[in-house]
Amino acid sequence: MPGECFQTELRIKPNWFALGLSTKEADKFQGFHEKNIFFIFDEAAGIPQTIFHAMSGCLTSENAKLLLLGNPSSLDGEFYDAFHAKREFYNPISISAFETPNLTGERYIPGLVTREWVEEKRKEWGENSPLWQVKVLGEFPTSAFDSLIPLSAIERAVNQDFEDKEDEAIFLGIDIARYGDDKTVIVARNGGKIRDIQSWGQCDLMETTGRIINYVNQIAHPVIINCDVIGLGAGVVDRLRELNFKVSGINVAEKPSDSQKFFSLRDELYWNLKERFTLGEIQIPDDKELIAQLASIKCKYPLGKIKIESKEEMKKRGLSSPDKADALALSFIQPAEFYSKMIEPEKDWYKIERGGPRWLKEQS
Question: What are φ and ψ of residue 3, in 5° steps?
């Protein structure tokens, strides 16, 4: 090729060059603007989301292109999203070891994967191992080694088809946010079936409360509401109670019912949610954002107890707050003070309106 080659740069003309970067500082990826610009990210699965956020401002040019290369070893981040939630914006290409020249017999390339290596790993890892899926098949694993809910169980929940149960209460799970990137999310469920998910951001608490009231008034009355009460949620819960809505304030930082197994109520709620997925007792909509959040949550076992990754830890990994996943977990709480009333036959306030909620009629 023409031009002058340096250690990390090939320069042909002032506006025609190739530059190599290796850094964790997102700012280093800003400020590049040309009509024709091409970004290549190697080992893309391990690149923090902050780098992609910084670089995205450079893709506004007329002929801007982006190429991501890597092993599908992570269930979160831009590389994972390129094959899932953001698939429509990319041209995803997967290449397994069996499609490479050394295994197809097309020709032999030194240094490329060999048939002997593949057979060795088949015996060592097994064909159901995440390592086999990543390193041999070139596919994202059905579950990460430390993920809470296997991706296979999440995808099965999307394809489930539960019967409508009009004699069961509708539960709402609400995760409250105010300003910033986080969103307030409402999840409505009937039995194990998630009926609806609504979300919004950039609202003060009074507007958020009004939106919740409007939502509740659009579906069958009354609704049992499980609302996050930590921080901003306390004001919403107080106002809903003042207006005589049946609401239960949930503080997920409180002690769990089984303190020998969990550190906090949040750990217990998410573990119970995981079991619903693994047992096939839940149906969720094909919501890419919810699926990505559920698949990204990690689990640890310090001191022999179950510890779910916190929102702060997820944000340090460049992920957004799992607002939809939190609301989903909250929707499955059945507060004792409400459940005791539900078993009284003369009280039918929890019954769903005949024919289903109005928002279900509108959607059908």
Answer: 95, -175
- Joined together, the tokens standing for residue 336 give 């004792």
Q: DSSP labels for 295-361?
A: HH-BEE-GGGSBEEPPHHHHHHTTPPP-HHHHHHHHHT---HHHHHHHT-TT--TTPPPTTS-HHHH
Domains of the chain, residue spans: 4-135, 151-363
Query: Per-residue pLDDT tens for 52-62?
Result: 888 888 888 88
d(CA 276, CA 55): 39
CA–CA separation, 214 and 114 (whole Å): 62
Q: Which CATH architecture group holds 151-363?
A: 2-Layer Sandwich (3.30)
**Number of helices (H), then strands (E), in the chain:** 14, 12
The structure's pTM equals: 0.61
Alpha-carbon span 230 to 136, nearest angstrom: 45
Instruction: State the Cα–Cα distance between residues 76 and 56, nearest whole angstrom.
Output: 18
Residue count (the chain): 364
**DSSP 8-state symbol, 200:** E
- The pLDDT score that the predictor gives to residue 178 is 65
The CA distance from 243 to 199, in Å, is: 22
User: pLDDT at position 315, please?
Assistant: 81
The DSSP output letter for 44 is: G
Per the omega criterion (within 30 degrees of 0), is the bond before 222 cis?
yes
Over the range 170-187, which residues count as b (16 or more CB within 10 Å of their CB) and which as e?
Answer: bbbbbbbbbeeebbbbbb
Q: Give me the pLDDT at residue 104, please.
A: 95
What residues have CB less than 8 Å from 141, skipping those under 6 apart? 72, 73, 75, 130, 133, 134, 151
